Amino acid sequence: MKVSDFLNRVSVLEKTGTALTGDTNIQDIRGDLLDTDESLLSVLDENGVKQGEVDTINIRYLVSKYSELPAIELLDHFREGLVIIDENGRICYINDAYKQILGVLARKVVGKFIFDIEGSALLYEVLKSGKPMIQEKHLVKSINKYVSLRMCPLYKGSKIIGAFSIFTDITEIDNLNNEVKRYSGIVDEYHREKEVESEALRAQIIGNSPNFLRILDQAVIVAKTDAAVLVSGANGSGKEVITKLIHMSSARRSKPFITVNCSAIPESLIESELFGYEEGAFTGSRKGGQMGKFELANKGTIFLDEIGDMPLQMQAKLLRVLERGEIEKIGRQKNVEVDVRVIAATNQPLPELIKQKKFREDLYYRLNVVNLTVPSLKDRGNDVILLANHFADYFCEKYSKKLSISDEAYRALARYSWPGNVRELQNSIEHAVILCSGPIIMREHLPGRIMEGEISEPDVSLSAPITQCEDVDYARSIAKAEKQLMLEALKRSSGSRTKAMELLGLSRRTFYRKLKENGLVP
Ligand SMILES: Nc1ncnc2c1ncn2[C@@H]1O[C@H](COP(=O)(O)OP(=O)(O)OP(=O)(O)O)[C@@H](O)[C@H]1O
Asked: Per the database record, which ranges form the PAS domain (predicted)?
């Protein structure tokens, strides 16, 4: 049996008064007598069953050490407070930590009864009940401090001769805990807000055409990684919208999203804009220096818009940053580590620029780990109508108007080729909402080029039935066109509802609701 196990057992045996073999009882072992010639003693339980054996040489050593050690002085070096009371509840000992934690003088406490010092003294209850007690958090009212307590009765044989309490001041820990809880509450709230923002952003992205929905799906998938993304697409097609969706759907959503328009910054300033500078780095530099966009975006996402316009020399520096994960701040000896997800966007064909030696091929491959190409508006079928309605609602609210769009205006919108994509559509609808004085937006309220009908490429989607609609009543004509569209889609997909649904770019729920509304299912 190990000495430590034995010593544990000693306290059990001490309480039960069980003797060891050889008529040597526990008192003898704790005292200075160990009168036995045997080197091994058996340890018995209260039923006299042998539990193990003890090496008497070890016990002799321990007993002699116990009598040598200055126990009471040692107790004064504990960080925990200690108080011992006698069998009547009278305080017979307090250590230094007790005095410090509770801020009392020994002469005001020692010799007094515990219940006179602390009304709700739990230690007195322990003395009465003879049962140990643990209190993780107890308020000492007299000093308004929280302590963590461990209280035990003291036995001599089977008789209670007092009790002791060991306690730690946890006021500070408790305060810190509360602070941590408060801050984690704030952080949770912030994350919830960001989640709501990300859902709201998704709801604001309008489009049901399969080619646009595919990009949205890919954006959400790539958001779960830290891979560099190159978003390409024509002017105003929604590259920034897609980039924000990636950021907001990623684990970085609560961290900064920093946009840099590479074509808008003069070549001489781009380095300090991106990487910042130290105080005194050059004549005219700001006091205290300046943080660059990469540092500002740390832990978040940096969006390098119009990357095709970045000067060649800067491209080399950017490549180094992407490869090393650190920036060279102007005027600073040591590089600064940054953890930034990079998303670049372009409306120029980068492979073409590479051929012309205007864009570095190595940088292109670094940025183009995942490529998302946002389709032009003219290739998104009925998204034009959905977006037109969305922007009409938005601007009607902004200008406090109640307007609907006429059938002929819809047709003009559907016919136009939209070289400026969603941005052009957005501006055209704002233009129409401002100019429209009646309740309905007519063709003539649209900008001239759209009104005159610059014909787009023939639409391969399902918009044809809309243009066949002769009814001028808005609600009726839309309902009629909708039913025609659904029938056409079912026809083209040979009756397969899943295929028809994909063709129309509708969600399953919307598709089945519309089938029902149009009487196409029982
Ligand atoms: N699918 C969409 N739903 C709603 N609004 C959109 C959508 N796509 C783009 N927009 C709006 O159209 C405008 C242009 O979009 P965005 O700035 O993302 O285009 P871009 O391709 O980044 O433009 P640029 O080529 O000029 O950088 C913005 O106001 C944006 O909010």
From this structure: 67-112
| Residue 63 alpha carbon to ligand 1 centre in Å | 84
Q: Is 406 in the pocket of ligand 1 (CB under 6 A)?
A: no
| pLDDT tens digits, one per residue of 438-464 | 899 999 999 998 887 644 433 334 444
The fold of the 71-169 domain, in CATH, is Beta-Lactamase (3.30.450)
User: Is there a common fold for 71-169 and 205-375?
Assistant: no
| pLDDT of 331 above 90 | no
Dihedral sign of CA atoms 427, 429, 431, 433 in order: negative
Query: Which residue among 202, 235, 241 is best mutated to probe the pocket of ligand 1, counting the most ligand atoms within 8 A of its Cβ?
Result: 241
Task: Name the residue with higher pLDDT: 522 or 234.
Answer: 234
Shortest-distance atom of ligand 1 to CA 425: 12
* 520 Cβ neighbours under 8 A, 6+ residues apart: 483, 486, 487, 490
Asked if this assembly's ipTM is beyond 0.85, the reply is yes
Domain 378-517 architecture: Orthogonal Bundle (1.10)
pLDDT in tens, 367-411: 999 999 999 999 999 999 999 999 999 999 999 999 999 989 999
Beta strands in 88-214 (DSSP E): 91-94, 133-140, 145-156, 159-169
Handedness of CA 139, 145, 148, 152 (dihedral sign): negative
Q: How far is the CA of 471 from the centre of ligand 1 (A)?
A: 33
Domains in the chain: boundaries: 3-68, 71-169, 205-375, 378-517
